[in-house]
Amino acid sequence: MDFSGSHILSIDQFDHSDIDTLFSVAESLEPYSLRKKVTRVLEGAILGNMFFEPSTRTRISFGAAFNLLGGAVRETTEVKSSSLTKGESLMDTAQVLSGYSDIIVMRHPEEGSVESFSQASRVPVINGGDGSNEHPTQALLDLYTIKKELEANHKTIQGLRIALVGDLKFGRAVHSLSKVLCLYKDVTINLISPRKLRLPDSYLRLLTESGVNINEFENIEEGIIEVDIIYMTRIQEERFKNKSDAKKYRGLLRLNEKIYTANCEPNTVIMHPLPRDSRQGANELDSDLYKNPNLAIFRQADNGIVIRMALFALVLGVVEQIGKTSREVNWHTSKRH
Ligand code: CP
User: Fold this and answer.
1) What's the pTM?
2) pLDDT above 80 (res 334)
3) Any ligand 1 atom below 6 A from CB of 128
4) Is pLDDT at 138 greater than 90 in this prediction?
5) Is pLDDT of 337 > 80?
6) What distance in angstroms lies between residue 108's CA and the mean position of ligand 1's atoms?
């Protein structure tokens, strides 16, 4: 892919070499995300950070990534504080916002909405999540995390054994992650979900056609034996037409220290795109795993910064210039790992 000026709408746009390019730029940006160096390479540029659905990680990390490259951020955090509530179309909104911004990140509850928005935008648009369809930048930061965690255990993505657990029907992070794993050889995926929340057939077909080994389970204890990574997900209550249906699945699939210790190989890495649902009755990823060194969920969230910085640098064509405006930070408390 030619990153420069492109919209980033789906993980389908990425091939192996695009991912290698992105990860190589991301690694070069770690001194900046860790606050050892600063760069002003995007000084004067404006990010339109348009979130029409709740978010903590995606919105803040996209904004922080842009700030860390020297750019400024303007944002909307909900539909009701935008003129969409007055009946303005997404097309008109795109025309207007792209006049105010150099690049736009957008999250919206409707599938395909970000793509429609991009068609009317005069600047590149990045999909921050469209309904239950896709969350491509989450898949990229997940894959980057998988690579790093496996490398620490002397393994590679080729040969990966991963369990995807929870709401595989509505979980857009799982949808994008399973698509990107199709690019790798000798991958085994254990799909663990209630029967009615299985991964949709279109994704199952894609995985099978790409040579991924698939096993399906309804029981977490059986599905997490002999995997390198457990990827937990929340029941996506906001996607259910009938909210009381969602409640039936709350708390059905849980990982805690006892289940982990009884069933997992040593060093099995625990991931979750977050937010996890820590309310009583849900609790799919128990806080008793907090001190387990294999719990990678906060390293995973941190990786959102470098991956999103790398995307901005590639799409806005400034990778070669980052070093020219680089200097050491002025303060003394650089980030700890
Ligand atoms: N992982 C993720 O998309 O988190 P937020 O909903 O908080 O952005």
Assistant:
1) 0.96
2) no
3) no
4) yes
5) no
6) 12
Give the β-pairing of 37-38 and 327-328. antiparallel
The structure tokens listed for 270 are 């625990």
Mean pLDDT of the residues in the chain: 95
Distances (CA, A) of 127 to 6, 56, 95, 136: 12, 15, 17, 7
Measured in Å, residue 287 CA sits from the centre of ligand 1 at 19
- Peptide bond before residue 275 is cis, with ω within 30 degrees of 0: yes
Q: Of 213, 14, 24, 12, nearest to 3 (Cα)? A: 14
> Does 137 contact ligand 1 (Cβ within 6 A)?
no
CA 47 remoteness from chain centre: 19
CB 56 within 8 A of CB 29: no
List, in order of start, the domains of the chain with CATH numbers. Answer: 11-134+304-328 (3.40.50.1370), 136-298 (3.40.50.1370)
CA distance 277 to 251: 9
**Which residues partner with 282 through β-bridges?**
none
